[in-house]
């Protein structure tokens, strides 16, 4: 029997139905694109626009980044040389400090979902941009920052925290702006940890090769068994263990994928017309969630002045 909706009107009906009691959301960079933050893997995304030749690195490290741009966010490279990560992340760190980006319609939909239905169990966000936290009506404990956050800083070696404003001042002056070589110092100089003195201070994001916050595993255990609906939005679903949510939910959980293109087929998302549990809402996140907000009759609750 088909339990998944076949269109947005059906999804709205499902959300409002008494049988649907618990809803979780898994988001990726695509939900923040409308705010002006590029994603990782699309053309024009962070990995596509990486300029290894401009980064303060050894020839071997530059080669590694040319071969696999993701190397820039690995513990392996950061431990050897913190500059590639710090130089690439510089505009994002300073933009965060300056509150450059606003929560999108997608983020506001999750907030409305909580306020209007009280069915939002959790947002698992892979994003480090903090835009979910701009939606102040969502209790903080409902948001799991699976890959950490760019809006605080600590030493990746010993864990000592650094004041974020002081950290940003150092990023502004010590780390060169590789995308605008004229404006920054010619070479980056390290930001040393006040405790261990190592040059390993960075935003509290999770590097590949490091552990995810224990909160992720705890909430997965707690939330998934009783989940009625999982909304997966704006993620390529290529990074584990975040993508494991898709196949860890019970058989009875309806999965809704909101994305520009099909993702996660290898994880068992079923895009065939025979699919009984999956619904693919293809399009830009903000367009799809706006349509859903309208279908739910919540448009008057969307505050246009909050939007990007
Ligand atoms: P990706 O860049 O891998 O995937 C973004 C997905 O969103 C792609 O499928 C895009 O087609 C889609 N997309 C982009 N803009 C969209 C829009 N406006 N509306 C709908 N879909 C859109 O980003 P993530 O899946 O978030 O991890 O990447 C996962 C992790 O890989 C990140 O958290 C980061 C990265 O390496 C770490 O750095 C640890």
UniProtKB/TrEMBL annotation:
Residues 1-299 form the Deacetylase sirtuin-type domain. Zn(2+) binds at residues 155, 158, 193, 196. The keyword Secreted does not apply. It comes from Seminavis robusta. PROSITE patterns: SIRTUIN. Gene3D superfamilies: SIR2/SIRT2 'Small Domain, TPP-binding domain. GO terms for cellular component: nucleus. This is Dependent histone deacetylase SIR2. One of its GO terms (molecular function) is NAD+ binding. It comes from the Eukaryota.
């Amino acid at each position: 029997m088909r339990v998944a909706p076949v269109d947005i009107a059906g999804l709205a009906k499902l959300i409002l139905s008494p049988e649907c009691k618990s809803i979780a959301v898994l988001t990726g960079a695509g939900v923040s694109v409308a705010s002006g933050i590029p994603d990782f893997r699309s053309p024009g995304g962070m990995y596509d626009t990486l300029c290894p030749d401009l980064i303060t690195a050894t020839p071997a490290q530059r080669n590694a980044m040319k071969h696999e741009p993701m190397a820039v966010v690995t513990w392996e490279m950061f431990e050897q040389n913190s500059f590639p990560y710090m130089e690439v992340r510089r505009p994002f760190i300073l933009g965060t400090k300056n509150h450059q980006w606003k929560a999108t319609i997608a983020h506001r939909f999750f907030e409305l979902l909580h306020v209007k239905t009280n069915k939002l169990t959790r947002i698992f966000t892979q994003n480090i941009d903090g835009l979910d936290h701009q939606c102040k009506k969502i209790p903080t404990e409902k948001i799991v920052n699976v890959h950490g956050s760019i809006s605080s800083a600590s030493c990746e070696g010993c864990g000592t925290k650094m004041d974020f404003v002081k950290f940003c001042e150092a990023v502004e002056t010590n780390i060169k702006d590789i995308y605008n070589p004229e404006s920054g110092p010619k070479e980056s100089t390290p930001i040393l940890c006040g405790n261990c003195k190592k040059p390993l201070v960075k935003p509290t994001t999770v590097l590949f090769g490091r552990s995810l916050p224990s909160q992720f595993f705890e909430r997965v255990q707690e939330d998934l068994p009783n989940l009625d609906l999982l909304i997966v939005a704006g993620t390529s679903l290529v990074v584990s263990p975040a993508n494991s949510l898709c196949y860890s939910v019970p058989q009875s959980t309806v999965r809704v994928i909101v994305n520009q293109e099909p993702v996660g087929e290898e994880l068992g998302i079923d895009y065939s017309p025979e699919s009984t549990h999956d619904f693919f809402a293809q399009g830009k996140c903000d367009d799809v969630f706006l349509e859903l907000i309208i279908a739910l009759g919540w448009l008057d609750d969307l505050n246009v002045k909050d939007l990007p």
